[in-house]
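S1.2 Input.
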Amino acid sequence: MRVAAIDCGTNSIRLLIADIDGTNFREIYRTMEIVRLGQGVDQNKSFHPDAIARTLAAVDLFAQEISKRGVEEIRFCATSATRDATNRALFIDGVKERLGIEPEVISGDEEARLSFIGATKEFAPTEAPFLVVDIGGGSTEFVYGKSDVEFAKSVNIGCVRMTERNIHSDPPKAEEIENARRDIQDAIAVAAAIVPITKAKTLIAVAGTATSVAASALNLAQYDRHLIHLARVSAEQTHQVAKTFALMNADQRSQVGFLHPGRADVFAAGSLVLSEIMKATGAKEFVASEADILDGIAWSLARS
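S1.3 Output.
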């Protein structure tokens, strides 16, 4: 069965088209657009008209790809920003008009479950238990389990949210970084009260912040998802990336070849989130995975 999975987050919207038959998965097409749907949502609790326009323009492009590739089923999942926006109906109606389906505004728990499914498919049972950490634009999911989710918690410490809330200077001031760090530590403590974050054998980090930290640790000139996928990054490397980008200004970040232009202004905060997670878990390394919630959405459409 040919399926289309769409993950619409705070910073990006992504499309995966795949053929899935039982346990067999064949990727047909994958793409991403940075649209910053969550622009200002943390402060204003509503979508900016420009953000809706950018995102629906991307949905138009996705609709063309879905139409020409013979997709049988579509699942569109919207996450943190859409959960928080009081005017989400404007966006939902726009998606329905373009794709003919009802987009789902999924809960943090469902987001965690789908991330876990997508991230752990390629790992052997001997590498369990897993802690999957999904650092998004608006929220971060902590998901623990062996073959299935046992504990999960979503907290509001995404890279866009932490940047908009705390970082207002270029380059960031030391006190802004410290304010962000405290917010992050407080949120991790909330997650740790529910999820046994120090008990995992394997820490898997997914989504653009984590894979970009891996790209930096690997000294990649350009982003290469095949080299990044399943790369192991030490805690020391993670802390160094966070320190380096906290000192850089916008011009310096824009010259980093592996960093998507739409991620450059929020990467300092995002890498700080991952650095603090490494400290809190005590993990010596994380495994970067290009398989994440998007893959989990696709798997959820598979017929048993």
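S1.4 Remarks. Residues 49-68 form the longest helix (20 residues).
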